[in-house]
Design a protein that fits this description.
It is built from 21 helices and six strands. The protein has about 625 residues and is mainly alpha-helical. Helix 5 packs across helix 11, helix 6 packs antiparallel against helix 14 and helix 16 packs across helix 20.
């Protein structure tokens, strides 16, 4: 086997690990107690060399690439069991359906606020922030879904939500942190959609008094948005999402074509003067909050990925890459043309800058309303998911209700004539409708939602979760940077403790808690503190401790739990790697640290900027 490293794999000469031999089939010492969905069974006592040779045909080693001293490996058949009550989708979609849903989740209310974001950030700074936010969004989507579905420690544990993923390294606190911010993002977006409907549809109909506008919003949302929000599976929205994305594309074309860019720029003294004056502004973080709202879709990522038929790492990467790139291009075109058309007069909803009786503007408003009608249900799905998870353990179908017969596809557990899904969909609609009756300004809604929920769910959350899930690997890597070789504590080793990505000659050492305590007392160089490594190693330590408990407690079928007393102490190396495995790398460690820093700074600065602007009356 070639020993040349793959491009994204970390090399460190002090990192080394060996994995325990695992046996299935004929070994009578195997403990058959059902402890979960994991494709390995562990001998209750260390097999001797003769047993190893006799059981070669029944052995399957963990799927990692390491030094080869095993002549052959075979695959053992296992049974997958699901322990979560989370209802699985009954309808799934392909690449285009999942991409349409993800794009629809991205280019919702936020896209119409992009010109306002460029006004607050400055033209050049805003475009750079848009590119950065787009890249970070794509990366974070791959990280969170990759950790849950393809990480070697979690891929066999049926992790199907962002909050469940955060619960593995950080327990209840991680679960609640993600859940709350998912709800903030979804709730803020739904409120913004209703405000846009209240602005656009009455203008199309030539109605401008407040009472009539409110009544039109209530009637249209109740007859279009609410029924779509009551659908069970997101794949059912694939067609409406496709129409919504097409409407967004036409809307961008309308604004780019009819925004008075030339006249406005000429009156401002030319494009050079505009750049000189507005390339960056002190209120940049308000713009960043709006951009984060526009691009953030981490709160719906798992719902979309679960709807993807035959999901693989490559297929999910294609969905995120296409959706994020296309959305960023649409946002940039609409943002630049809308901002240059009105400059300092740009409003939170750029269509409000156009004349109310303009036919062109009304066509654009109709397209925007069309998009809002079909995007609102996407966010309603997320809000409903969070509430059902928190209050019913993910049981959307009401299987825990006494009236449920247990038949597949049956739903119960609601009030009046509605089931649980319909009850919560209607309740969420009322929760967003009531404040929409009194609020009018879209800009602060988008900015505050993006600063709070977006900063946490899009940046801070993925970064912390990545360090937590890969806590052992990060600690080995971090102390390896100091030149220390951490001794292997085999009593804590589980077959899920896979190496940092490297070539076939490199393996990983797991941190011994006693060794870690010793190293914590060692004098560190200045750069260790300057780069915040005490913080990052603390996060990794918490994640490492919780992961060991959580992974061992998770039910694993047909094997003793990893790390239990029956885990063998005999070790061997492995000769092959499964293709769809997400392993940690040094590059991704530093990207996750950047995520954390960026999320904290953008959240604090965004909220502070909004408070300052509101108090100063600017």
């Amino acid at each position: 086997m070639s020993s040349s490293p793959s491009p994204n794999r970390l090399r460190h000469p002090s990192i080394r690990i060996e994995l325990p031999t695992v046996n299935t089939g004929t070994n009578p010492d195997i403990n058959d107690e059902a402890v979960g969905d994991y494709p390995y069974a562990y001998a209750s006592s260390p097999p001797n060399d003769q047993e190893n040779r006799n059981n070669d045909t029944n052995r399957r080693s963990a799927p990692v690439m390491m030094e080869s001293n095993v002549s052959s490996t075979t695959t053992a058949t296992t049974t997958t069991t699901t322990t979560t009550k989370l209802s699985k989708p009954l309808v799934q979609s392909g690449f285009w359906g999942a991409s349409s849903n993800l794009m629809n989740s991205i280019v919702g209310a936020g896209i119409i606020g992009i010109p306002y974001a460029l006004r607050e950030s400055g033209l050049i700074a805003g475009l750079l922030l848009l590119a950065l936010v787009g890249y970070l969004t794509d990366k974070s989507l791959r990280i969170i879904v990759g950790l849950a579905s393809f990480h070697p420690k979690l891929r066999h544990h049926d992790v199907r939500t962002f909050e469940d993923l955060a619960a593995y390294p950080f327990g209840v606190k991680g679960y609640n942190f993600i859940s709350i911010n998912m709800f903030i993002m979804a709730y803020g977006a739904m409120l913004a959609y209703l405000l846009i409907v209240k602005d656009t549809v009455p203008s199309i109909l030539g109605v401008h008094d407040r009472l009539s506008k409110t009544l039109i919003m209530v009637v249209t949302s109740m007859t279009i948005m609410l029924p779509l929000s009551m659908q069970r599976d997101m794949a059912s929205l694939s067609i409406t999402s496709l129409f919504s994305v097409l409407a967004d594309i036409v809307l961008v074309g309308f604004i780019a074509a009819f925004s008075p860019v030339q006249e406005t720029v000429r009156d401002a003294g030319g494009f050079g003067k505009v750049l000189e004056k507005d390339w960056i502004n002190p209120t940049m973080f308000i713009g960043l909050g709006i951009l984060s709202t526009a691009m953030a879709c981490q709160h719906s990522a798992f719902i979309v990925s679960e709807s993807l038929r035959n999901k693989t790492m490559a297929k999910w990467s294609r969905v995120t890459g296409f959706s994020i790139s296309a959305s960023a291009v649409l946002c940039a075109i609409l943002g630049v043309s809308g901002y240059l058309g009105f400059l300092d007069e740009t409003k939170g909803d750029v269509l409000n800058n156009f004349d109310h009786d303009s036919t062109i503007a009304n066509v654009a408003r109709l397209l925007l309303a069309f998009t809002m009608f079909f995007t609102y249900p996407m966010e309603s799905f997320v809000a409903r998911h969070v509430l059902v998870q928190l209050l019913h353990g993910g049981d959307l179908d009401g299987r825990d209700d006494p009236s449920h017969s247990g038949a597949e596809g049956e739903e119960a557990g609601g009030i009046l004539c509605m089931n649980r899904r319909q009850t919560w969909s209607f309740a969420i609609y009322l929760m967003t409708l009531i404040p929409a009756l009194f609020v009018d300004d879209l800009g602060p809604v988008l900015s505050i939602t993006g600063s709070l929920g977006g900063g946490c769910i899009a940046y801070l959350g993925p970064g912390i979760v990545y360090l937590g899930v890969n806590g052992e690997a990060f600690l080995s890597y971090a102390y390896g940077l100091l030149g220390y070789s951490i001794s292997l504590d085999k009593s804590l080793l589980t077959p899920e403790d896979l190496p940092i990505e490297g070539d076939a000659t490199n393996t990983m050492i797991l941190p011994n808690p006693d060794t870690m305590a010793t190293l914590d007392g060692v004098c560190k160089p200045f750069w260790w503190y300057l780069l915040g490594f005490p913080i990052w190693t603390s996060i990794a330590n918490i994640g490492m401790s919780n992961m060991r408990v959580k992974v061992m407690d998770a039910p694993l079928t047909g094997a003793t739990a990893p790390g239990s007393p029956s885990t063998p102490t005999h070790f061997s190396t492995v000769s092959s790697m499964e293709e769809d495995v997400m392993l940690p790398s040094g590059r991704d460690f530093f990207i996750s640290i950047f995520f954390i820093c960026f999320g904290v700074i953008s959240g604090i600065a965004g909220v502070a900027s909004n408070v300052y602007v509101q108090l100063s009356g600017n």
